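Need a sequence for this fold. Nothing fancy.
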């Protein structure tokens, strides 16, 4: 595959126009993509942000140091040195080209102030601590840059740039292979999600019974409590799950699950209490009405834990709003499949028969009270 490498060329500008032209031509002859400050006519904070992005995109970096230190940033460093420092910080393969005889450079292409000369000398010393080459003329510089970049490419292979059509041709077989692998893993994941968790066969489930405790109170139709007590319902796990599962097709909060169970067993609890001999023995002017049905919190927690352990439900982290602190539960693929088997009506059949759970008084009710 034919690659093009991008090379950032850093230097002062006005004093090194001829040298930069030679370097640009040399890079183009190597089929490289030269980048440099010709793209950045202004030196300000916004341009510095752009320069850093271009250096990030480059594969290699070269700096040319002549007789000038260059325009100085508010930090006190020249933009050329800032580019050099940034390239090193990004671990770009770098080579510096220093004029071999700074004293021979024409006066109008050198630093005129003592401060500028000192900073230039410090920059040269910094560059010498890394890979450095020396040049004496524009043509000499172009030749040495060409050989040095070839060496950089050999010693430090980079990503480079390729034509989009060539990249697509190379990537296409790999994309196909990865898509096939994704499909295989997705199939395995879906198959696994529809299987009960390992070890769940030892847990109560299906037609196994569980007792749900409810607190009840009956009123005279107003606010006066005439009868209250705790009663329990014996129901199979299939019945319990069949009650709550439809509420979790999307997601349901724990309070919604609790209310679903309270509604499902309300009539049976009402009937059971009113058939209780102790209840019937009371001399009622008017038979009290069932007012409150409240599932014990401990039973609600046990049901949620059991259904989760059976792989039927899982916690849903989606919140209605940022201040929503409720806990939500949703069906797993296995739970959805089980719900369908329990609740879906088959062709030619009526509604599936509802279990008639037995109810008994667990603790005696008490009459009277406000």
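Here you go.
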């Amino acid at each position: 595959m034919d690659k093009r490498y991008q090379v950032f060329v850093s230097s002062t500008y006005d004093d090194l126009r001829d040298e930069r032209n030679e370097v640009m031509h040399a890079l183009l002859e190597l089929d490289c993509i030269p980048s440099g400050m010709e793209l950045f006519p202004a030196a300000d904070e916004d341009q510095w942000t752009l320069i850093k992005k271009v250096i990030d995109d480059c594969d290699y970096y070269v700096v040319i140091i002549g007789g000038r230190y260059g325009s100085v940033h508010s930090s006190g460093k020249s933009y050329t040195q800032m580019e050099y420092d940034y390239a090193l910080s990004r671990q770009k393969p770098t080579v510096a080209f220093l004029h071999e005889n700074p004293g021979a450079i024409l006066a109008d292409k050198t630093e005129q102030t003592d401060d500028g000369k000192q900073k230039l000398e410090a920059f040269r010393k910094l560059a010498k601590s890394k890979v450095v080459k020396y040049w004496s003329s524009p043509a000499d510089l172009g030749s040495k840059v060409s050989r040095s970049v070839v060496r950089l490419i050999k010693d430090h292979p980079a990503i480079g740039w390729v034509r989009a059509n060539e990249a697509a041709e190379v990537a296409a077989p790999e994309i196909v292979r990865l898509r096939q692998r994704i499909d295989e893993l997705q199939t395995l994941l879906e198959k696994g999600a529809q299987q009960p968790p390992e070890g769940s066969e030892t847990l109560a489930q299906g037609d196994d019974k569980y007792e749900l405790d409810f607190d009840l109170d009956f009123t005279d139709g107003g606010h006066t409590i005439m009868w209250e007590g705790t009663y329990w319902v014996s129901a199979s796990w299939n019945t319990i799950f069949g009650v709550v599962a439809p509420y979790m097709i999307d997601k349901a909060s724990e309070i919604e699950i609790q209310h679903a169970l309270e509604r499902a067993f309300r009539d049976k609890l009402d009937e059971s209490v009113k058939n209780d001999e102790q209840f019937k023995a009371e001399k009622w002017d008017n038979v009290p009405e069932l007012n409150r049905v409240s599932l014990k919190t401990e039973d609600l927690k046990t049901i949620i834990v059991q259904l989760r352990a059976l792989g039927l439900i899982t916690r849903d982290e989606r919140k209605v709003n940022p201040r929503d602190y409720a806990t939500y539960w949703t069906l797993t693929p296995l739970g959805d499949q089980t719900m369908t088997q329990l609740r879906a009506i088959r062709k030619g059949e009526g509604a599936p028969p509802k279990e008639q759970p037995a109810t008994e008084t667990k603790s005696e009710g008490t009459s009277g009270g406000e």
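For context: The radius of gyration is 40 Å.
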